[in-house]
Amino acid sequence: MSSEEFQLPLAFNVGAVFFFALTGALGARRLGYDFIGVFVLAFATGLGGGLLRDALLRSAGPVVALTNPRFILAVLLATCCGLLRFSARIETFNRVIAGLDAVGLGAFAVVGTQKALAANLHWLAAVLVGVANAIGGGLLRDVLTRREPLLFKPGQFYALAALLGTLVYVGLRLEFNFPSLWAALWATAATVVFRVLAIIFNWKTRAVEAPVENP
Known about the structure:
The protein is mainly alpha-helical. The chain is about 70% helix and about 0% strand. Helix 1 runs parallel beside helix 3. The termini are far apart.
């Protein structure tokens, strides 16, 4: 398939940046950062996954975040939203951030997979790039705020939700020849639903048991 077949509307990519950047902005507000800290964390969260993706796809051209001002504008808009007066209840922030994070996770998983397929990579490599694109921003957000990355700890399905989204997108595109936009919407919806169900029913991974040392 040609790369043109895999082009998603720009609004889909920009929307993914906005939703992830907003999770960073709200997280910064909850931590009591000033407006500079809110912007930096929104920028890192919104564009971190894309930077990791573009590093993996070195032949795909310049870093996408620097080629279109809409991505920076999306981060600025998310920053402004993060600076507005929301409810001070931590529980509300947690629910809002979890919901937005699920949307951003699914959208970024699709965007990364699409760009890898457009670069004529094997679908397995495209899945890897899609997952990296999805989790990169959240990973950078946790590192900057000195939290143990959610990705590394036993807990509710996160990377697995992104993996599901990439597999749904690849399957719909390559096996069923869905139009790219419809495949993207279905894959994003699948990721969001799976992630939300994992939160509601507390589906978790388990820690790998350390080997028992002989006395």
